[in-house]
């Protein structure tokens, strides 16, 4: 990193200040926007967790069908994410990320008109197609706009969007579920209003987002130069440590890529297992209104936001990224295992503890593959890791739904989540063999 910074600054002591100003402007302009986009994205993805009982009552969608429908989103996401990220490189981040958001907003609105299991599956699959490429597209965007030293904090701030969405989605969805009229049920109004909010946000994205630093008129010429120079230097330094003939298919044979996929799979397995089934656990705690269920649902995610920033600060200070990911995964494993010991109240408390781990692990994970990948194929491989890892979002709800319908309990699934987190905590140390750039 020192080498890259020296390349930019040369003999001028003022150049680092120009770079700092450029980085500050970038963060203040794009990070709030991406956080808001992620909040909308996450709400439209997981809001079905709050309408499970309504879908069963009005449409006859049982636990197994609900779990499969919740998870099929991630199959579509996995299939279309790599092509989507490649197309982002062709058309530019501004056009492509705006297109992604418009698409998912329209499909999310269409969820209000499902008629039964088949249409539920189709719309959830289409939502996955529409959203594919958003998350890795933003991750790749950071590699084009921020120096290495800034990306960890940027990822923590960006990922806080999912935690903020989890905090907001409960009370928001609970309030919207109380709306009745116009020929629609409350759950239909929830899908319509939250989906159309994403469509409206597209206009803001188009206005504020630029594809490349060179296009940013809100940066001065010296700031653009400082920013593009250090990013180019870091790419050159990273690519110099990789074979000249490196390609996506070559790196896919690398065992470390497989490790990245499994580790992220284990993280997402736990996140979505908790996300889709937490409202059901809360309802077993007592007789609560939809709004009260939403308020209780916010508690684990409020805790996780604080944990994400705490762990990000520790990792930045002590510089042992893999160790901090492992610690976070062990905390998640302990919380998920403890949730099987007693009743729903104790389970809720245990999941609050687990949230400290699985959300922190998610934000701490991404700087590891970012530092390893050849920038020439980084976008496609980041998309691959995210899409395969996100299959945890299919496995967890589908398995939980099947277990609940067949056995009346999800205890076996919680044991599996704890085991996967422990295994991932051990495997993360195998990614340290090559020096991070």
TrEMBL record:
Main location as per UniProt: membrane
Annotated InterPro entries: MFS, MFS_dom, MFS_trans_sf
Record-annotated Major facilitator superfamily (MFS) profile domain positions: 30-436
Keywords from the named record: Membrane, Transmembrane, Transmembrane helix, Transport
Membrane topology listed for this record: Multi-pass membrane protein
Cellular localisation: Membrane
Gene Ontology CC terms, in alphabetical order: membrane
Gene Ontology terms, MF aspect: transmembrane transporter activity
Transmembrane segments: 30-47, 59-80, 96-114, 121-142, 154-177, 189-209, 257-279, 291-311, 323-356, 377-400, 412-431
Protein name as catalogued: MFS transporter
Source organism of this protein record: Duganella rivi
High-level lineage: Bacteria, Pseudomonadati, Pseudomonadota, Betaproteobacteria, Burkholderiales
């Amino acid at each position: 990193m020192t080498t890259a910074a020296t390349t930019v600054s040369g003999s001028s002591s003022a150049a680092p200040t120009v770079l700092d100003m450029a980085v500050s402007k970038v963060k203040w302009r794009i990070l709030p926007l991406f956080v808001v986009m992620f909040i909308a994205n996450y709400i439209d993805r997981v809001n079905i967790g709050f309408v499970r009982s309504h879908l069963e009552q009005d449409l006859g969608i049982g636990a197994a069908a609900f779990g499969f429908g919740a998870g099929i989103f991630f199959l579509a996401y996995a299939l279309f994410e790599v092509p989507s990220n490649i197309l982002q490189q062709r058309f530019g981040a501004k056009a492509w990320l705006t297109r992604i958001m418009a698409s998912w907003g329209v499909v999310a609105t269409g969820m209000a008109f499902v008629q039964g299991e088949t249409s539920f599956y189709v719309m959830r699959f289409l939502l996955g197609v529409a959203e594919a490429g958003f998350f890795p597209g933003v991750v790749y965007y950071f590699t084009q706009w921020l120096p290495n030293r800034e990306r960890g904090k940027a990822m923590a701030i960006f990922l806080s969007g999912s935690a903020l969405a989890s905090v907001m989605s409960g009370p928001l969805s609970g309030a919207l579920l109380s709306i009745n009229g116009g020929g629609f049920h409350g759950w239909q109004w929830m899908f319509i209003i939250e989906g159309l909010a994403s469509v409206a946000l597209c206009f803001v994205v188009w206005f504020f987002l630029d594809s490349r630093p060179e296009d940013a008129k809100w940066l001065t010429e010296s700031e653009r130069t400082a920013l593009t120079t250090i990013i180019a230097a870091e790419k050159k330094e990273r690519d110099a440590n990789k074979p000249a003939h490196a390609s996506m298919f070559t790196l896919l044979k690398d065992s470390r890529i497989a490790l990245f996929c499994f580790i992220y799979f284990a993280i997402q397995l736990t996140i979505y297992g908790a996300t889709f089934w937490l409202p059901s656990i809360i309802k077993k705690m007592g007789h609560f209104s939809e709004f009260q269920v939403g308020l209780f649902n916010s508690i684990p995610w409020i805790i996780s936001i604080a944990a994400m920033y705490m762990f990000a600060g520790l990792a930045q200070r002590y510089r042992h990224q893999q160790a901090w990911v492992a610690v976070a995964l062990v905390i998640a494993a302990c919380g998920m295992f403890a949730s099987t010991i007693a009743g729903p109240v104790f389970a809720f408390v245990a999941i609050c503890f687990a949230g400290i781990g699985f959300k922190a692990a998610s934000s701490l994970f991404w700087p590891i593959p970012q530092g390893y990948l050849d920038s020439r194929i980084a976008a496609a491989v980041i998309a691959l890791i995210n899409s395969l890892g996100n299959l945890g979002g299919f496995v967890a709800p589908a398995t939980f739904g099947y277990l609940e319908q067949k056995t009346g309990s999800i205890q076996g699934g919680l044991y599996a989540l704890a085991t996967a987190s422990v295994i991932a905590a051990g495997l993360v140390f195998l990614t340290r063999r090559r020096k991070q750039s």
